[in-house]
Amino acid sequence: MRILPQAPHVALLSTAVLIGATVVLRADTSDDIQSLRTQIQQLDQQLRVLQRKQEIKDEETAAAARAAATTAPKITIDDKGFTFASADGADSVRIRGLVQLDSRFFFGDQGASTNGFFLRRARLISEGTFSKLYSFQLVTDFAGTGTPSILDANLGVAIDPAFQLKFGKFKSPVGLEWLQSDSWTFFNERSIATDLVPNRDLGVLASGGFLGDAVSYSGGILNGVPDGTTSNNAAFDNDKNVVGRIYTTPFKSSDVVPLQGLSVGISGDLGREKTASGHTAGYKTDGQQTFFTYGSTVVADGQSWHVSPQGEYRYGPFGLIGEYVLSTVNVRPTANAAKAQLENKAWQFAAGYVLTGEDSSYNGVTPKTIFNPSAGTWGAFEVVGRYADLKIDDAAFPRFASALTNADEATSIGLGMNWYLSKVALVKFDYYQTKFGFAPGAPAIPTTVILRQDEKAFITRFQLSF
Amino acid sequence: MKTLLRLLFLASSFSALGFLAAPARAEKTIELLNVSYDPTRELYRDYNAAFARYWKAKTGDDVVIKQSHGGSGKQARSVIDGLPADVVTLALAADVDALANVAKLIPADWQKRLPDNSAPYTSTIVLLVRKGNQKGIKDWDDLVRPGVSVITPNPKTSGGARWNYLAAWGYALAKFGGDEAKAREFVGALYRNVPVLDSGARGSTTTFVQRGIGDVLISWENEAFLALKESGGDQFAIVVPSLSILAEPTVAWVDKVVERKGTAAVARAYLEYLYSDEGQDIAGKNFYRPRSPKVAARYAAQFPQIKLITIDDVFGGWTKAQKVHFADGGVFDQIYLPH
After folding, report:
1. Which is nearest to A177 in space by CA: A352, A304, A382?
2. How confident is the model over A109-155, as pLDDT tens digits?
3. DSSP-assigned beta bridge partners for residue B29
4. To the nearest whole angstrom, how far is the Cα of A214 from the nearest Cα of chain B?
5. CA-based, 20 to 30 A from B173: which of A152, A308, B213, B316?
């Protein structure tokens, strides 16, 4: 409530009293006194009316300002990026970014050509929603060789929380860790289990959640890509892959708190591949060095499928993910030779514990404090560990891959620490050790340098993600 | 292939376990927005709690009802402009009609969807005076006397104010044998005695009760009773005029909003429950006249007997009354000159 300044009020009343006093001196009758009372009451009412009118005017001004605020577009700048939204939130566009500067150091001779600093990711992400129904996402990456590439470009229609459609280029929903944001995986490089899952692909995907999101699903038709690879933007393919995933968090609404963060699921795809240059670009170690490739004349020709049981558990600062991947492909040593079906398998378990007590989450850790030495706050610290294994089908050697230059198995241990300077800034320190196994016929000393001893890599990262 | 089949079997069993463990139906929290007029704060505070209990017992779901209050006309305008009301509980049918006619948010026949023309409780208009009634106010005639200060809100923004205006007009018509010109003169004289026009009924109550302005407040009956109750019963008195009007606040769910939000069932149930014994009892406790004869009998002693005219009988319904009296350039605009 706004009160009018007291001075005019007091002045007017004083004047009235003075007038009254003067009149009283002249005619001290009860009628005069009554008349003065009436005049004072009238003046008092007039003042109250003026005050109330001003109060109403102020209220209307404030209401108009509130109304204007509710109809004005909103601009938000926070750890989720720059958001421009209509007043009702139905339309919005968000600009986000991800920059990762890594350093890799290999113990021994293995990384002689790959030691050093480099830009792992430099992404500009734009996404938006219109009428709360239609959405888009465009992810471009400027890291690597310096040539910008379009990683994701898709359009969505949110018909219902239980049924949403996505068209375009996006992550194939097979690998558990693969689906997690690049910003928030436990380690700075995904495990070798992710080598076996398709990466980004073109197609159409339906997804949704029900039972209070205790159950989610996705399913669709994609072009199909080899293990660990991403489709280009015009990957024409007569044979399509059917892909699906179902994921449940069965105790999400349960009163048993330790079980609320338990999720299990299964994903897979099925399709046909016929490529001119083999089925895979190669499987890589945690240090991103190739330890297996098919022979240069090998072509994929026939049915292929993946299946991946997977699960996750989060309880307070503790987090655990695990997945198994079976990748099956039909390949020929040369275009006209007899084909064979190969089954490559991988699995991983990774766990993290937030030492500073924050919750472990699929979407990263939100530190209670940010790193600010002058304020005596240090952010959040998380220790992480991982064990993973990838086994190539024995039948791959020697018809489809040389035992001289390839390993047939990689077993990896990873240990690390993540320092969340803030929700936006993160530093990671990871140590990986990968042991290789070999097929019969492999030489005592492999011809490929990186396979001659265990890979021991120390990889650090400074990341800004918003 | 055998490996694949084995894995599929194992993984499917794993997932099936998850499904079985999932609750058959997850309880949820539903949020409704009730956009109402000015003096219903207390009524819906009580009613919302009762309905939430009822809905929880019936469905297991929690329902949280948010309230928005203001002048009825302004509230209707806000909904038309995009305020996402699941339900509206406004002072008069004309304001709800605007949602159908202007914005097509509800069907034109919305009043037929609930009993009693979608008016689950009624009220009327009375006069509230200060202790001692120094100006000797007994009926509408006293409000046009020079020197009497009358408090009533703005009919352009307040539903209650329109009922006030029409009650006065109806009295004048009855007094002057249906002479519209004299009724116009009478109401014009009344508004010349109005020093402040608030945008809503609650604002006028504040002006009269808390700011101490005016000799008489033209008020909703429920608002007058509330003012008496909150002041301890000895600061004000209700003067029952010889004639007043049957005020029928109306309610509707907003189809376009509830369809978009998926709240149609609960929004409808929310309004239907107003007609239940509990809903009617809460109305009575908050000084609204219940529709239910059974509940109305329980509160009969609370409400004075007044001769009541109706909007349909005297003014030809809200559509006509709105157009003639309150539309831009209508009678009110012609007779009211801001001080």
Report:
1. A352
2. 665 667 889 999 999 999 999 988 999 999 999 997 778 899 999 99
3. B62
4. 7
5. B213
φ, ψ (nearest 5 deg) of residue A288: 65, 30
Which of B25, B82, B212 shows the shortest C-beta gap to A88? B82
Structural contact between residues A323 and A179, judged by C-beta atoms closer than 8 angstroms: no
Chain A contacts to B (CB-CB under 8 A): 45, 48-49, 51-53, 55-56, 59-60, 67, 71, 88, 211-212, 214-215, 246, 248-254, 264-266, 268, 305, 307, 309, 324, 326, 328, 341, 343
Reported ipTM: 0.74
Which CB contacts under 8 angstroms, 24+ apart, belong to A145-152? Answer: A150/A233, A151/A123, A151/A200, A151/A230, A152/A200
CA distance B119 to chain A (A): 29
Q: What is the least distance, in Å, from the CA of B210 to any CA of chain A?
A: 11
* CA–CA–CA angle A223, A227, A228 (5° rounding): 105
- Reference B49, options B278, B217, B315, B300; nearest CA is B278
**Helical packing angle, B72-80 and B159-175, nearest 10°:** 130
Instruction: Please state, in angstroms and rounded to a whole number, the distance separating the CA atoms of residues B316 and B325.
Output: 12
CB contact at 8 A, A407 and A437: yes
Q: Quick one: how far is CA B154 from the chain centroid?
A: 16
Residues from chain B contacting residue A9 (CB–CB below 8 Å): none
